[in-house]
């Protein structure tokens, strides 16, 4: 397969759209069965998860809600480094079964921060559903019960994920070509 250019870098297909679709359908079936009758609230983390969230939700067969949140980063004090603010969460999480929908867990630091923010809102349960996980980059211990693909530590784009804002529209997932 010929490489493509996204902005100024070359990428090659690593996970074709059909494979993504098949795996997401399996994951949706598993989540539907696990959370049947629990009225789950899905929280999709923008921007990266928009395609994954749309396809995953089409396969969820138990009554549920979905909401979209965003982590805005701003530079904190020198000791705290980059900190995030959670934007767009209007639902009451008390007693709810929450499923976070993420595009990718890399170091896991963003996810750890998000989990701790959500846990202060007294949910019954918070589970992670991530399209991709780079196990070799994980810096924190995370329980990720729902994951479509484990991938190597290479930079990827497509299917919602971006390189400097570009490539989110690509239906397949592409890996950076190292030259
Ligand atoms: P973490 O805090 O290191 O787990 O970073 C997670 C965030 O980094 C993801 O939500 C993505 O926005 C971004 N990210 C990590 N790896 C990649 C990649 O290979 N391509 C595009 N974005 C990535
Ligand atoms: Mg993200």
Brief rundown of the structure:
Helix content is 21%, strand content 35%. It has helices spanning 17-34, 50-58, 109-119, and strands at 4-6, 9-15, 41-46, 65-75, 82-87, 97-105, 125-133, 146-150, 156-157, 173-176. It is globular.
Account of the protein in words:
- It is a single chain.
- The chain is an alpha/beta fold and 179 residues long.
- It has a single domain (18-151), classed as Rossmann fold, CATH 3.40.50.2020.
- The protein has helices spanning 17-34, 50-58, 109-119; strands spanning 4-6, 9-15, 41-46, 65-75, 82-87, 97-105, 125-133, 146-150, 156-157, 173-176.
- The strands form two sheets. A six-stranded mixed sheet has the order 5-4-3-6-7-8, with helices on both faces.
- β6 (97-105), α3 (109-119) and β7 form a beta-alpha-beta unit.
- It starts with a strand and ends with a strand.
- Bound molecules: inosinic acid and magnesium ion (MG).
- Magnesium ion (MG) binds next to β6.
Topology:
Blueprint: E1 4-6, E2 9-15, H1 17-34, E3 41-46, H2 50-58, E4 65-75, E5 82-87, E6 97-105, H3 109-119, E7 125-133, E8 146-150, E9 156-157, E10 173-176
Parallel strand pairs: 3-4, 3-6, 6-7, 7-8
Antiparallel strand pairs: 1-2, 2-10, 4-5, 9-10
Helix pairs in contact: 1-2
Bound molecules: inosinic acid (IMP) and magnesium ion.
State the major sheet: 6 strands, mixed
H/E series: EEHEHEEEHEEEE
**Termini Cα gap:** 16 Å
CATH topology: Rossmann fold
Mean pLDDT: 95
Order the strands across the largest sheet as they lie in space: 5-4-3-6-7-8
Question: What gross morphology would you assign?
Answer: globular
| CATH class placement | Alpha Beta
Query: What's the total number of strands?
Result: 10
Question: Which CATH-level-2 architecture?
Answer: 3-Layer(aba) Sandwich
């Amino acid at each position: 397969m010929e490489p493509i250019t996204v902005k100024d870098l070359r990428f090659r297909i690593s996970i074709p759209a059909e494979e993504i679709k098949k795996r997401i359908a399996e994951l949706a079936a598993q989540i539907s069965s696990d959370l049947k009758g629990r009225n789950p609230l899905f929280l999709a983390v923008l921007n990266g998860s928009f395609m994954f969230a749309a396809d995953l939700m089409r396969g969820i067969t138990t009554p549920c809600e979905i909401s979209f949140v965003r982590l805005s980063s701003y530079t904190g004090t020198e000791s705290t480094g980059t900190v995030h603010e959670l934007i767009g969460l209007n639902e009451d999480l008390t007693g709810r079964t929450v499923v976070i929908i993420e595009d990718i867990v890399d170091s896991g630091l963003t996810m750890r921060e998000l989990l701790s923010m959500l846990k202060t809102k007294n949910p019954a349960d918070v589970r992670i559903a991530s399209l991709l996980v780079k196990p070799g980059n994980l810096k924190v211990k995370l329980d990720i019960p729902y994951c479509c693909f484990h991938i190597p530590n290479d930079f990827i784009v497509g299917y919602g994920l971006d390189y400097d804002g570009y490539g989110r529209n690509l239906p397949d997932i592409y890996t950076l070509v190292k030259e």
